[in-house]
Automatic annotation (TrEMBL):
<dbReference type="InterPro" id="IPR029062">
    <property type="entry name" value="Class_I_gatase-like"/>
</dbReference>
<dbReference type="InterPro" id="IPR036480">
    <property type="entry name" value="CarbP_synth_ssu_N_sf"/>
</dbReference>
<feature type="active site" description="Nucleophile">
    <location>
        <position position="248"/>
    </location>
</feature>
<dbReference type="InterPro" id="IPR017926">
    <property type="entry name" value="GATASE"/>
</dbReference>
<feature type="region of interest" description="CPSase">
    <location>
        <begin position="1"/>
        <end position="172"/>
    </location>
</feature>
<feature type="domain" description="Carbamoyl-phosphate synthase small subunit N-terminal">
    <location>
        <begin position="1"/>
        <end position="131"/>
    </location>
</feature>
<protein>
    <recommendedName>
        <fullName>Carbamoyl phosphate synthase small chain</fullName>
        <ecNumber>6.3.5.5</ecNumber>
    </recommendedName>
</protein>
<feature type="binding site">
    <location>
        <position position="221"/>
    </location>
    <ligand>
        <name>L-glutamine</name>
    </ligand>
</feature>
<keyword id="KW-0028">Amino-acid biosynthesis</keyword>
<comment type="function">
    <text>Small subunit of the glutamine-dependent carbamoyl phosphate synthetase (CPSase). CPSase catalyzes the formation of carbamoyl phosphate from the ammonia moiety of glutamine, carbonate, and phosphate donated by ATP, constituting the first step of 2 biosynthetic pathways, one leading to arginine and/or urea and the other to pyrimidine nucleotides. The small subunit (glutamine amidotransferase) binds and cleaves glutamine to supply the large subunit with the substrate ammonia.</text>
</comment>
<feature type="binding site">
    <location>
        <position position="45"/>
    </location>
    <ligand>
        <name>L-glutamine</name>
    </ligand>
</feature>
<keyword id="KW-0315">Glutamine amidotransferase</keyword>
<dbReference type="GO" id="GO:0005524">
    <property type="term" value="F:ATP binding"/>
</dbReference>
<comment type="pathway">
    <text>Pyrimidine metabolism; UMP biosynthesis via de novo pathway; (S)-dihydroorotate from bicarbonate: step 1/3.</text>
</comment>
<dbReference type="GO" id="GO:0006541">
    <property type="term" value="P:glutamine metabolic process"/>
</dbReference>
<dbReference type="GO" id="GO:0004359">
    <property type="term" value="F:glutaminase activity"/>
</dbReference>
<keyword id="KW-0547">Nucleotide-binding</keyword>
Amino acid sequence: MKGFLVLKDGSRYEGELFGALFSRVGEVVFNTSMTGYQEVLTDPSYFGQIVVMTYPLIGNYGVHPDDEQSERPMVRGMIVREKVDDYSHWRGNESLDAYMTRHGIIGISGIDTRALTRKLRSQGTLPGIIVSEVSDLDEAQALLAGYDIKGYVDEVTTKKPYVIKPKKASGLRAAVMDFGIKRGILKSLVARGVELHVFPARATAEEILSCSPDGILLSNGPGDPSELGEIVEVVKSLIGKKPIFGICLGHQILTHAFGGKTEKLVYGHRGGNHPVKDLIHNHIVITAQNHGYVTVASSLDASQIEITHINVNDGSVEGMRHKHLPVFSVQYHPEASPGPRDSDLLFDQFVTMMKEAK
Ligand SMILES: NC(=O)CC[C@H](N)C(=O)O
């Protein structure tokens, strides 16, 4: 069935619809990963966004429940050059199209994703909507004009606290503040024998400390970190009490808790091939990324906070640590899911920090 991607700037792209016919406005962002479309679909940090995959063939290996990063797809739509129905992989048990249909997610194929990505790179990310009828275009434009992104963390965080016990326990326990956590992060810690006590994003410091954690993990998540004032206050009160490791939104919340600022990038970093310089070990790691906001380097108090990682492409902040306390964070995704595992060691670093503090 014919359909259209309509962007807020009035441009439209014609293609073929797939998935479910459920049109919703979202921020159109692009991801440069060659594989991992199912992890991207289900990553809660993409909540409220429509993702363009720049790799031209999507769906080749089908989908599999083990690749999900949360219990359902979180994106509002997917834009591809060529959708593959005839998938082939020993793990694949459903086509991408059937999976998206089952979960109520709209997709559009046959789009010139190179032209679209070049537009987003030069103009910045834009709200967009995928619709089926030409007659819907005026209505689409009205929806796009009124689009606003707010309150996404509350939509994706766990409603109740829960505990994950590892098969081989190391005796360590971490509290996790869930702002929209990816399963890959939970799995990386559980694989190291860490018992996890996962808390809703709005948990109080007392609630978090009541599980007697050896460390606190601040998760990834969707939306603008500067909207999360109350959560920042909770994190501020936890600094110095336990070792803390922040990932992506967790790193941005920590930035605010340190008195720093974040700002929006023009088109963000999303993909599995972003080079980052580790300034402590003086080497480059290839990283998985998914973020639209970034720490403003000059906003950090250099007497307290050290920048540990920078992005090789644009020089932006990719990691930091406290100079005197066991607190560190990265803007990228050490758990990959999808992407390279170069930074897996950061989980070992967190484990060592918790052992030392115990
Ligand atoms: N993956 C994340 O945690 C994303 C953080 C934040 N929502 C951003 O886009 O920058």
